[in-house]
Amino acid sequence: MKILPKHFMKRQAAPRERDLSELAPNEAPALGSSPILQQRWSDVAFLHWRVDPSLVAPYMPAGCSPDVIDDSSWVGLIGFQMSKSSFFGSPSIPWLGNFPEVNVRLYSIDEKGQRGVVFRSLEASHLIPVLVARATFSLRYQWASMKLEKRDGEIAYLTRRHGQASAASHFIVRPTRDAAANAKLSTDPIATFLTARWGFHESHRGRTIFCRNHHEPWPLQHADLVHLDDGLLAAAGFDGLVKRDPDSVLYASAVTTMFGSPERLAGYYSTLGSSSRTEKQPPPTAAP
User: Which CATH superfamily groups domain 33-266?
Assistant: First the structure.
């Protein structure tokens, strides 16, 4: 059994079990600010594994705890094609904002009840967006060689991180065409929990931030997992998880996403890798 450092044992609130009736709706709440970024996400594959909340608790930013449903938290491996990226309403950037992404993410909730995701890693094939996302939001973007291919009703996602060959992934999904079963996903509580996440939590410049996003409801479909050979989960701290089949495999054709300005969680700071709450410590001089 892995022994966690003491500050991990103290830094987080207890995992929050969500009553199914309290889950976020499929429609996003108001963004709360003018959008700072817009993107198109296409051919989105969601692979998810149930885990004990204690497994993901050490990775929660200060002021957040694992979001829990049906006594479980979840680890997601998500692949998609990003395109039509634009900033502050400007025209999209054809080359720079068009690339595949594969990320490993967890599910969080803060003391205000804001439900989001926490990214353990994000692979992208263009170096400039990697550097910008790291600097702007402290997101754990990694530069990688990537490819997304579509053939005979299947979508393949391939990625290999530069400088860390073991941090690679190759998975293939086949979306199903059962219209009746797919229609039921709009009211499925687990599917809603895993996909209707209207923001992300992150530790940025010593503070915990929440950045909202907004898009139309996911056009979800069930999908079959055709192939999985993955090292990203282990690289993100979840060694051995890939040895069992995912508990959920979903697919969505496309959504257009907008991000608002990040908000600070009042009173939460991180110092030398440990996190705590205090109202007396002065805020950092630089804005996020």
Answer: Acetoacetate decarboxylase-like (2.40.400.10)
